Amino acid sequence: MSWLEEVRGDPLPWLLEKENPPLRYGALVDLLGRPPGDPEVEAARAAIPTYPPVAELLAAQKAAGYWVKRDYYLPKYTGTFWTLCVLGDLGLTGEEEAIRRACEYMFTFQRENGAFGRRRRVAGRGLVWDDHAGPCTQARIVRFLIQFGYGPDPRTRAGIDWLLAAQREDGWWDCGAPGRPGCLRATHDVLRAAALDAEMAARPGIARGAERVCGVLGRQSLHKYHTGASWDVLAYPPFDLSLSSTLQALGRLGYTADRPEIAGARDLLLGRQLPAGAWPLDRGYERAPLDFGPVGAPNKWLTLEALRALRPHR
Questions:
Q1: Nearest CA to 209 among 227, 225, 228, 223?
Q2: Does this model's pTM top 0.85?
Q3: Which of these CATH numbers, 1.50.10, 1.10.390, 1.10.3470, 2.120.10, describes 2-310?
């Protein structure tokens, strides 16, 4: 735990409080390194589905496996796609019936080429497939499928293959016109998925993408890379570009503070820590599936994310 010496105070007791099982589970596993089967880890994980905010969200699922609308993407921030992005980060797995239903529902939107697409109603044609699959959305779907335990599933592997085939020769991912600079958010999303899957992480394209993202860490102007986000704005959940989640992904992919870009990004993140040990929430999402706390206040979820980013990865 020597890495905690550069952190102000000791936020761990705050994150380990038993009344919030997802946070406690994340801190036990990702910060303290407790292994599967550890009694405290198992107790925290078992309590996640019955944690009132999570239980209420799971209860709102429709019988077919979706939330709110049959279009998996809409409404933005509260639809099935967004809900699963959040639930994947809380420690839930396909052992939960609600998660199994949701994943099988998502697979009904997968095309033969591995891409996930939406069906739109077109006048005179009825429901038709939208063949424009965005790599950012695809990457987030792949990521939560891996988190839920579907990584070995052939359907998930097909989704990964499509995603890797969609990479540009310059290392970026992008869903825009050829010739424009790559999309930082989309490439960041791909790296976040690859960081959770050793086979995907070993593909050459991931190393090229990681170099691209590392090269722009800390830059002030990112509009060239098609994101209005900023590295120094701390947001949760990570629906957009996120310094802490980017550092986590790069750390899992072998990047350390020996790289000046990583060292500078770590300093930026440490510089935002409050004296008592927490990190403040700069931006939230009012319509997020769960309430993650008020903007401007010390935030447990963001603090867990920051510490995950700062902890060395083996």
A1: 225
A2: yes
A3: 1.50.10
